[in-house]
Amino acid sequence: MGDSSDEEYLGTDWVPYSERSDWKDVEPLAQDDGPNPVVSIAYSQKFREVFDYMRAVIARGEKSQRALDLTTDALRLNPANYTVWQYRRDILRELKADLNAELDYLSEVIGQNSKNYQVWHHRRVIVEMLNDPSNELELTENALVNDGDAKNYHAWQHRQWAIRSFKLYDDELNFVDRLICEDQRNNSAWNQRFFVIKHLGFTPDLIQRELSYTMNRIRIIKNNESAWNYLVGVMRQGDSGKARLNSYPEVVAFVEELYQAGNRSPYLLAFLIDLYQEQALQLKAGDGDQLARKVYGLCEDMASKHDVIRRKYWQYVANHLKNQLSKVQKEEQ
Q1: Cα-based angle 252, 181, 228 (whole degrees, multiple of 5)
Q2: Residue 284 falls in the annotated catalytic set
Q3: Which pTM was predicted?
Q4: What percentage of the chain reaches a pLDDT higher than 70?
Q5: What CATH number is associated with residue 31?
Q6: How many folded domains does the chain comprise?
Q7: Is residue 212 part of a domain?
Q8: Torsion sign, CA atoms 194, 211, 168, 154
Q9: Mean pLDDT of 121-132
Q10: How far from the centroid of its chain's Cα atoms is residue 22's Cα?
């Protein structure tokens, strides 16, 4: 940590612990890097002093208000220090502290460190201790929307935990739909939609609704990997998770219409390859030759034009289908 960072977090009027009368009884404990450290980190004087006192407090097992205040200083300097977070929780339990005040503190810390796992984990523990998730959806919405990072993994993870643990599903689809409308390529929002739909249960009516929703999104942006992945994911959930892509004729008609209209999105072509493979392997030997030729042609297009970086994969897909069809033919003879 540099001095400028320390000044920002602790302020220029910060008083060293070694000069505080109420800390005279504590002997700071320096970090032991051994006699010959390979790399000595150039900690600032403030950083070194705060953590020397932090180590001393932990070593003596002190759980007091001043120790809690010390963890606040330590976490301002290094909010990713899991040992300090754990000790802070121990102090909070010992003091029977106001956990709502702790949530207010965490909201401030998360506002400055929204991608810090330790902060979010601490928040989860405090919410569990309170058994009160009433602020969590708003908190995560602020992190995802107001802070301009709609793909913040930690915020999404915390949101899913809160929703799942406290049954907060009721309005989540509306929230997700709003994010998808704002950015249809937001894979995190599509993933959240699947999370909610999975909880609701993949009934035939729900699957049909989601397929229509997704096809409408694809009509707007045809080269949207997130929407195509969601479409396939939902289709696979039909028939107790055993559904094939050709189980939904309206989707088959939709993708073939896009292809006939000249669209060559690699996600569309990949869908057609999977679709025709499945259909070809469902037929008797020889009956699927026309479908197989479609697969070989599409794989060639992918390898040479639309997804060249994965050309070996598409060559493998074509060869694998040839081998499977050959195996089927031998078994039927």
Answers
A1: 25
A2: no
A3: 0.89
A4: 92
A5: 1.25.40
A6: 1
A7: no
A8: positive
A9: 98
A10: 44
